[in-house]
Specification:
This protein has one domain. The radius of gyration is 13 Å and the shape is globular. It has 53 residues and is mostly helical. It is built from two helices and no strands. It starts with 13 loop residues before the first helix and ends with a helix. 42% of the residues lie in helices and 0% in strands.
């Protein structure tokens, strides 16, 4: 069976700030689409928690 979903709502501009921190903000940088690891997700979650915590 599947576990219930957990939905986390990201704050406004979180993805924009994440790209800026990684020096990927601008026209010629590609946005990561898929990943088998949780690296991107964990980075976004930690940035989200910095605001809350």
């Amino acid at each position: 069976t599947l576990n219930p979903l957990i939905i986390n709502v990201a704050r406004k501009n979180l993805f924009y700030d994440w790209l800026k921190d990684r020096d990927k903000l601008g026209g010629q940088h590609k946005i990561p689409r898929l990943s088998n690891q949780r690296d991107y997700l964990e980075q976004l979650k930690s940035m989200q928690m910095e605001l809350i915590g």
